[in-house]
Amino acid sequence: MTEFRADVLVVGGGLGGVAAALAAARNGAQVVLTEETAWLGGQLTTQLVPPDEHPWIESFGSTATYRRLRDGIREYYRREYPLRSASRSLAHLNPGAGRVGPLCHEPRVALAVIEAMLAPWQAAGKITVLRRHVPATAQVDGDHVTAMGFHDLETGGDVTVTARFVLDATEAGDVLPITGTEFTTGAESQADTGEPHAAAIARPDNMQAVSVCFALSHHAGEDHTIDKPDDYAAWRAVAPEWWHGPQLGWVAPHPHTLEPRRHVFTPNPDDDPTGIVADQSKDPGSDELWTFRRILARNHFRPGAFDSDITIVNWPMIDYLGGPVIGGTAEQNAAHTAAARAQSLSFLYWLQSEAPRPDGGTGWPGLKPRPDVTGTADGFAMRPYVRESRRIRGQYRIVEQDLAVAVRPGGAVSYHDSVGIGSYRIDLHPSTGGDNYIDVPAWPFQIPMRALVPERVRNVIAAGKNISTTHITNGCYRVHPVEWTVGEAAGHLASFCVARDTEPQQVTATPDLLAEVRQSMAAQGMELDWPNVTYY
């Protein structure tokens, strides 16, 4: 058995995990970072989700390192791609001209920039990255986790990592059940949280839909139609009562009004990508599906460089409502994960063969899955997009009353222990319990340190979507810049505890320690407070 020792073990190489590893290393800690897949980056890479960002992201509202990531992605395109001069000169280059956010790009580019950010720390021996390693076991002494065991998916061997602090940055909070850290799943009851949008009865298995995303280009005159899936008829018949028709169709509920909305689909529009304004406060951008999460706009580049745009399919039609992919038995979780992929496969076939076209025909057989973009054999994501993780039972639980505009007309709660900021609507996709969208305005918010710190376990810190939110508030704390900020705060806190020989619970309870670590965070470019901004 291979053994590693570290000050800080970061489990999960998504955005939170990468940010945590960088923060811990730059503050003097020895770090081991593990990741289940071959790629780092999580929802930005392995799940094929371009960034969902707030309207002020180009000016403020993120950490300095998240800004470095964004700047690095843009510089990569300027350096390596044949951009037109007008596109190259854009200060806020959006390579895909996608409408979901101002920086839509290919996952491999984000991966390259993440690897570059980690490289000097790996060369210095401060960060060790273990790819294709799955957390399996934990050694626990009272309220402390002393070591964790991992299974190496490449060799079949086992690895043990001994560390002073364990940061859970996995996509689904996988460290929590293994270490015995108390956690919550699914929907809490209104009697428990007092939230206006909470359910009458708690449903631990009622979670937001997952989606298995995929990448497409379009090549007119070619036929890339996949074989008809064996279960296509079953997926074609899925029609939730409140969906306004079959889920595999162009009509879906509007997230804000729940009224029927007909989507538009126009592959490879001859648009000017330099004129696209991606600002969700002005236009959510999701009516026209091709450009919504487009990650490469061919008109940004010299004529002939690309014969098609590339877009990501992450649309309502692939939200899987059949059941949660966490919380059940291993067999149940695997079955739901496979079903989510089957639904996406059937939707691809529908797009290629049956989808109504504006000209009266059906299907776009020229739609081509792009495995070269996804790093997989079939053009589908390495992992499902998991919107809702297990969540720690933290020292503080963030509830709807802390930030919802309807409840707090004067602004979000100001936390004395803020370790970062974020902004997004309370945006819950339809759920495995049969709920429709919940999508309501929320104020720009802070991230309290106490939401990263468990009630009991002394050396586990939440470093991603598993912080102490509720089912409701998870809807605005789950997006890319917030996950990065949470991870960076967790890594900074862990390294601070190493250096001071203390524990997170002592930091949150000791004003002098709390002030010191927050001052250090601010000095390293972590924004802790919002200027005077409104909601969207």
UniProtKB/TrEMBL annotation:
**Species of the source:** Nonomuraea bangladeshensis
Name of the protein in its database record: FAD-dependent oxidoreductase
**Which InterPro entries does the annotation name?**
FAD/NAD-bd_sf, NadB
The record's SUPFAM superfamilies line, in alphabetical order, gives: FAD/NAD(P)-binding domain
Task: Please give the superkingdom of this protein's source.
Answer: Bacteria
One of its Pfam families is FAD_oxidored
